[in-house]
Automatic annotation (TrEMBL):
Belongs to the N-acetylmuramoyl-L-alanine amidase 2 family. This is N-acetylmuramoyl-L-alanine amidase. It comes from the Bacteria. InterPro entries: Amidase/PGRP_sf, Amidase_domain, NAMLAA_amidase_2, PGBD-like_sf, PGBDSf. Pfam families: Amidase_2 (PF01510). It is an enzyme of class 3 (hydrolase). The lineage of its organism: Bacteria, Pseudomonadati, Pseudomonadota, Alphaproteobacteria, Sphingomonadales.
Amino acid sequence: MAPISMLVLHYTGMQDAPSAIDWLANPASKVSAHYVVTEDGQIIRMVDEANRAWHAGRAHWRGIKDVNSASIGIEIVNPGHEFGYRPFPEEQMSALIPLVAEIVDRHGIPRANVVGHSDVAPARKQDPGELFDWQRLARVRLALPIPDGRLVDPYWSDGAFLLALERFGYDISDGRAATTAFQRRWRPGTITGEIDGECRAILFSLLLDRDAGRYR
């Protein structure tokens, strides 16, 4: 195991919690996660944090390619886009937030490395998706906040936007998928896959904050 420096949030993407838990516990599935959080707020530990869980697959974040070895994975029960994507209930979020806080504190994980599966695998994944309340995590300093206020469009070309997106952490080998993942996380109300002024302005603000040392 590499030192733990990331926390990756997923949704289960299966029809119900028992199906997801059975699948994650089945060695034949070749997938696993450290924790599952059910919609009624139960937390099930599936894999000891001292061991690698196989939750990220082929993934990349800020130069880290073996994301499974460098991260803790939490599966949040939700049918996902395939089976009826829906908001994450209050009971579930209320259970998730203290769990994330404990893990982040235990491993010293920076907020910038609390990410969604779609952030680290944009060409393959959509989870936890645009309905996940990242701002709620941000308000208790467990994730980066979505920039707001007076944003400035740097008027980058599309190529320059993608290079900036790579500098922020994303794999840009599929530029449209990377842009879609960025929007799903940072502008969840409008997901088009198209680079526009608002996307440029949000990313510009994120990079300015990071370069100024305001966020780890």
